Amino acid sequence: QVQLVESGGGLVQTGGSLRLSCTDSGRTLSSTSMGWFRQAPGKGREFVAAISYTGGGVDYAASVKGRFTISRDNAKITLYLTMNSLKPEDTAVYYCARGKYLLTSDQPSGYDYWGQGTQVTVSS
Asked: Residues 105, 48: contact at Cβ < 8 Å?
């Protein structure tokens, strides 16, 4: 059974860094693409980054490109999101999601399982 659990969120000042992790108790993470989305208060769920099942293909939202890095360790069944140069507008609940396909997708419809989310708050 797929169960995605995020960790690593917290409160950080503008310009700071955080690394989010996502694990899958069902150990299916290594067999498909994975992604990160976020949702700020009063806004819809927004694509952040995605990675193909091998890790060879990545995709980023324009708003985070150059600051965030998505990576995966298939041996550890873990997905990561390293976030640098954080801004107040990055404040949101961050969700990891398991892709339906081997290659990346920036659409929520391309994912079939979601974690519960981890809060990231960037203070100005």
From this structure: no
Please tell me the distance from the alpha carbon of residue 66 to that of residue 46, in angstroms, as a whole number: 17
Backbone angles phi and psi of 22, in degrees to 5:
-140, 125
If you search the block for the tokens 């969700």, which residue do you land on?
Answer: 95
Q: Which residue has the tokens 């976020």?
A: 38
pLDDT tens sequence for the chain (124 residues): 889 999 999 999 999 999 999 999 888 888 899 999 999 999 999 999 999 999 999 999 999 999 999 999 988 889 999 999 999 999 999 999 999 999 999 999 999 999 999 999 999 9
Q: Count CB atoms within 10 A of the CB of residue 61.
A: 16
Residue 52: what residue type?
A: S
Handedness of CA 69, 20, 47, 111 (dihedral sign): positive
Tell whether the torsion through CA atoms of 91, 97, 102 and 107 is positive or negative. negative
For tokens 């708003």, name the residue: 63
Backbone phi and psi for residue 121, each to the nearest 5 degrees, phi listed first: -125, 125
